[in-house]
Every structure is written in structure tokens, then in C-alpha cells.
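Lecture notes, part 5. Sequence design as translation. It can be helpful to think of inverse folding as translation between two languages: the language of shapes and the language of residues. The source text, in C-alpha cells, appears below.
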């Protein structure tokens, strides 16, 4: 585990502010869901990824669909178009 040297205090409601530098580096935006894990004496936070996240773009949209050929592979309309374009170029 890599230390950042950043220390924050817990407020009265049990909250800890995550520094903007870390949020930017990890791609965490306002409103993003965070998953919380406990490992021994550690609390681990990870950006929550739903099972429906597009495998190509990472987008989480209601329009995403699961491939009938590859169970567990979810694609957004944009991701499907990008994949189709890449496959068509691969055949050439």
C-alpha cells in the first residue's frame, strides 16, 4: 500500500473529506458511488462499478445491454458501435 502523506480528521458525522487530487487521479466525481471494504484493520474505498458498465467505454446507462454471445459482457450503444468498427477494420 502506498502512503500519500495526506491526513484528514473524521468530523462529528463520521465523514472524511477525500482530497481533490486523489479524486481526480482515481476518476471519482461528485455523486459517484463508493464501495467500502474492511480488511484486517483497514478501511478500503473503491469506486463502485455496476455489473452493467460498458466493457468498452465504462459508461453506465439504462441502454446498456448484455451480449448474448459473451455472458457478462455489457455494451453501451457507443461501445457497441466502436467495437463493430474495430472488428470491421480488423477483417480488412
Amino acid at each position: 500500500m502506498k502512503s500519500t502523506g495526506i491526513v484528514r480528521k473524521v468530523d462529528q458525522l463520521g465523514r472524511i473529506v477525500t482530497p481533490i487530487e486523489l479524486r481526480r487521479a482515481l476518476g471519482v466525481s461528485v455523486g459517484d458511488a463508493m464501495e467500502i471494504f474492511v480488511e484486517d484493520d483497514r478501511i478500503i474505498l473503491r469506486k463502485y462499478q455496476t455489473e452493467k458498465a460498458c466493457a468498452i467505454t465504462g459508461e453506465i446507462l439504462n441502454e446498456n445491454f448484455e451480449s448474448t454471445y459473451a455472458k457478462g459482457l455489457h455494451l453501451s450503444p457507443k461501445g457497441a458501435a466502436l467495437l463493430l468498427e474495430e472488428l470491421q477494420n480488423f477483417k480488412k
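The translated text above is only one of many valid answers, since several sequences can fold into similar shapes. The mean pLDDT is 89.
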